[in-house]
Amino acid sequence: MSWWGKLLGGRFGFVLGGPLGALVGAALGHTIDAHRGGSPSVRERTQTAFFTATFSVLGHLAKADGRVTQDEIRLAEAVMAQMQLGDELRTLAKNLYRQGKDPGFALDEVLDQFRRECHRSRLLLRMFIEILLQAAYVDGVLHPAERAILLHICSRLGISPDQFAHLDAMVNGAYGRHPRGDGAHGDAFARAYAVLDVSPDANDDEIKRAYRRLVNQHHPDKLVAKGLPEEMMKLASEKTHEIRKAYERIRAARGF
Predict the structure, then answer these.
(1) pLDDT at 115
(2) Distance (Å, rounded) from C-alpha 76 to C-alpha 135?
(3) What angle do CA 110, 48, 82 make, to 5 degrees?
(4) Average pLDDT of 69-82?
(5) Sequence-ordered alpha helix ranges (H) in the chain
């Protein structure tokens, strides 16, 4: 049985304490019996923390501009669909999302515990921010209130403004709106360079290095080994696909 099957069935003797544990307990609608089953592995704890933090903070981010739009709700549902969540786990995700929208949501405490449970893994923390950015760009634009919250989240997780700017450029390249270049063709190339987070003036070697670095950072198996929930592997695979597609477009045009 996978980590979430044991979680939903109450077979973890102790999942998480602190604010993340409180969110899980409230989302499940019951307190997990501390005497049932064995304790989860380190990886299962990390997976539970990542899933819990992702959907609750998505809910909090959706209210950054004062209201939750239908686009934002559809994005959260699209993430659940991509992960092919079963009915029980989808209900858990929706309950976490609703808690994140609550005015009393303890964002800083959730982020602090999430960082600890992820053992400060740069790969997991980057993936977390990318998922949030993708949600923020659901309408094609990163609004000032959303940017402010995301910068605060990054600061709490130990991600610098420069690192956030690189992640923003990548996600914006894939999901944001861009000024039209030389027709649709020019716009496609602008997006490709943005996805690789390189300048159109970068030389071939710089583009190759950027591509190898990004593919390595988004390798699904590596992320799952670090504690990414297996159900989220599809999100990592999609990002890897976007990176490869951008690289192939540039490579074909440059002929290297």
Answers:
(1) 96
(2) 7
(3) 105
(4) 74
(5) 3-8, 18-28, 42-62, 70-82, 87-101, 107-117, 122-136, 144-157, 161-175, 183-195, 204-217, 220-226, 233-254
Q: What is the mean pLDDT of residues 217-238?
A: 77
Residue 219 burial by Cβ neighbours in a 10 Å radius (0-12, 13-18, 19+) = middle
Q: Is there a contact between 68 and 78 (Cβ–Cβ < 8 Å)?
A: no
Q: Tell me which of 103-117, 122-136, 177-191 is least confident.
A: 177-191
Three-state secondary structure of 35-71? CCCCCCCHHHHHHHHHHHHHHHHHHHHHCCCCCCCHH
What is the pTM (predicted TM-score) of this model? 0.81
Residues 176-191: what's their mean pLDDT?
Answer: 58
Q: Encoding tokens for residue 123?
A: 């790969």
Of 16, 223, 252, the C-alpha closest to 123 is 223
The structural domains of the chain, with segments of one domain joined by +, span 3-254
Gap between the Cα atoms of 34 and 239, Å rounded: 38
